[in-house]
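Protein in question passed on here:
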Amino acid sequence: MSSCTSCCSASSLLLVNLPRGPSRHDIRGSLRMSFNNDNTNSKFTSSSLLNSVTKLLWGQSLPPGILVATVRTAWNSTWGLMMSQLAPSDSSGGYSRPASKFRFLGPVSPGSLHLYVGLACPWAHRTLIVRALKGLEEAVAVSVASPGMDGSWEFKRVGGADSGSIGPSLDKANGCKTLKEVYGLRRGGYDGRSTVPMLWDKGSKDVVCNESYDIIQLLNSGLNSVAGNPEMDLSPPQLKEQIEEWYRIIYPNVNNGVYRCGFAQSQEAYDRSVNELFCTLDELEGHLANSRYLCGDQLTLVDICLFTTLIRFDLAYNVLFKCTKKKLCEYTNLHAYMRDIYQIPKVAATCNFTEIMDGYYKVLFPLNPGSIRPVMPSTSEHQILCRPHGRESLSSATPVFVK
């Protein structure tokens, strides 16, 4: 009965501003009838009690202003607290991404590596694509974590994966329930952020690296002795300077730029971030009108880094992260460029759109409290992404792809 007492106390406070509303006696009588019905029918729920109270208080009209203001203030305070943990910000309210804790130092033992990823994460997606293109599936095993409702990564088999795509799995290397447990196995333990991707050394029981760009560089050139496609080089010496130059543009403004929009905690920070994002997308659209890939005829690591953001743009960032100025499908060259990469053998299998959408809409509670996942945009469907892109005409050489 204590819950009933709390509800009645709260109700009596609200009655002060409702002179023509029901009396306290009416409310108590109705609540008593609700409980009697519950004892008879066993169908009483807290939701039905709440509905009964609200109907008695203000009928079909909107809640009183004082209640709306109180709830808004409480929600804003709670939202700020959650966002400070989810997405730390600078003094202007701009998102400040924490630096990766474990950077690759080398050398590594190729036969002892295990890769941990999450399918929703664009940073982890980079590693899956490079692993596939280099033919490292057998040499570097992978465990696929799923985002839990509290935002942490956990291991479980999940049904309903997209046909032909990689899906969530159990921890194949350590048998842990969560990624946090895996991090905790390293010497000296670890109580920081447990992020994906993470490269693990099974022999030394330690984290090799959890910085995505370091990992894709290692997968591209550091494991050719065990790679099925060692001749592919996604970072050839003659293009390294161009690759790094493009990455200095793409990382802050696009890869991290969409997060800076979505996690902005002030109008000023959002306006700045969204302007930089779309100015950069406009620049890329112009560049790709005359160049098949960012560095000319050859697919490189920076193309992979851009692709994993673009493939999520209309699915998640345009809506959830407020990147609403334009959809990616409105950029003729960028959308065709994305389809070009998607159609490279093995790439589509790394794209699990169900997991991507669930990982954003159902898990990022501060951005989507109802956890309602919208319908997938038609331009992100597999059959649309497989339409001819026509970008071969921009290339003067035939790139080396996995057959």
In short: The longest strand covers residues 141-147. The chain is about 45% helix and 5% strand.
